[in-house]
Amino acid sequence: MILDSFLVLGIISLIISSIVLIALVVVIVVLLKRKPQAPSDQPAPVIDLKEIGALSNQLDNLSKEMKMNVELAVSKEMSKSYELLGKQSNENNEKLDRFKSGITEDLNKRFDSLNETMVNRLNDINKKVDEKLQEGFKGTSESMAQVRERLQAIDDAQKNIETLSKDVVSLKNVLEGNQSRGQYGEYQLSMVLHNVFGDTIGCYQEQYTMKKVKDGDDVRADAVVFMPEPNKMICIDSKFPFQDYSRIFESTDKEEIEKLTKDFTGSVKKHITAIKDKYIVEGKTAQNAIMFIPNDGVFAFIFQNCQDAVDYARAQRVVLTSPSTLPSILYTINMVRIEVERAKNVQEISRQLSKLGKDFEMFGREWDQFSSQLEKASNSREKLDKRVGRITSKFDAIKTSNPSELTSEDDTPLIEGEEN
């Protein structure tokens, strides 16, 4: 800002000096033009050197005076500038001091507020950390208790597995015997029948004797399901070719496995033939019989690897089933039985509905009569209530010996055909 002031003053002084010089030049030119020109035949005028010298002295004096005035003006402006600069410096120092004090105070306040906030936040964090630690300790204790319980459960499960392994060994021993396998299959079949039909009598019968033989074993089906006429009954026989089936998985040779699979297929075909010959009897049974295989794994293996046996069973009208497929067949049979029984009773139901309709008509007529009589009885009751009220009021008047009330009463008869 000070440099700008000096620059302005220098420019002003330069302009003034230039103006003065120009003015002097103009004055000299004007003076020369005012001199009268002498005729050409006269001699040239003599220049007055004293006058020019005086004029030059005046110009020098004027220049010095102007220079002094300019320097005086510059010094005054310089002093004013220094004075103004000092004032501005003092004001700036005061403003800077106020700014510094304000900033310092504001920073102190903000620092105190921030410090207080940080202290509160740290206290909250410490409190939450303590709570979380307590919850963590509690959760850890509970988790340890659960871990101990689960370890105990694992120990119990290990004991159960050991017991189960013993049971599996015993089950394998059971399945290796023909008689025990037959009993296992019959038990499975009995459970399926009971789950489908429940305790309904007449739907099925277990160990049903098809034919009695004097000198040999009777022909007996493991179970029969009774169908409505003319379908007769469907025989179910349980077959469990587990021994031939297990040999397939005991071998690792591919050719031997193929041979054992063919042998297993032949064994299944023999069972199908036996069921067809024993349990499909013309005029006594249905045209189909059911072979129950009490293991879904064996059943799936037959359908996947023994297509010849499946085709042979279809040709012999023997339906292959398992614990997962037999219930759906039995449910279907049961629905057929229900529909047939319902069809038998359709006429009787229609007749009973017609009879019930007549009963409703008779009930409607009787209800109308009853409603009419009830309405008459209600009207009679209202009349009797009015008469009882009048009699009561008269008795009260007699008790109080007030004849005016007796004469003011209505003279209508208390009973039709009589007077008061």
Structure characterization notes:
There is one protein chain. This protein is α/β, with parallel strands linked by helices. The radius of gyration is 68 Å and the shape is elongated. The N and C termini lie far apart (137 Å). It has ten helices and five strands. Helices cover 75% and strands 7% of the residues. The longest helix has 128 residues, at 49-176. A five-stranded mixed beta sheet has the order 1-2-3-4-5, with helices on both faces. Among the domains are: 178-344, no CATH class; 350-408, no CATH class. Mean pLDDT is 76; it is low at 36-40, 167-171 and 414-420.
Descriptive keywords:
420 residues; alpha/beta; five-stranded mixed β-sheet; 5 strands; 75% helix; elongated; disordered C terminus
Q: Ranges with pLDDT <50 over ≥5 residues?
A: 36-40, 167-171, 414-420
- DSSP strand tally: 5
For the largest beta-sheet, the strand count, sense and barrel status come to: 5 strands, mixed
| Helix/sheet category | alpha/beta
Q: Indicate the mean pLDDT.
A: 76
General shape: elongated
The whole-angstrom Rg is 68 Å
Termini distance? 137 Å
Helix content: over 70%
Pattern of helices and strands: HHHEEEHHEHHEHHH
Number of helices: 10
Strand order of the largest sheet: 1-2-3-4-5
* Quaternary structure classification: single chain
What fraction of residues sit in β-strands?
Answer: 5-15%
Topology:
Elements: H1 2-34, H2 49-176, H3 178-197, E1 204-211, E2 219-226, E3 233-238, H4 242-250, H5 254-279, E4 289-292, H6 296-305, H7 307-315, E5 318-321, H8 326-344, H9 346-400, H10 403-408
Parallel strand pairs: 3-4, 4-5
Antiparallel strand pairs: 1-2, 2-3
Helix pairs in contact: 1-2, 3-8, 4-5, 5-7
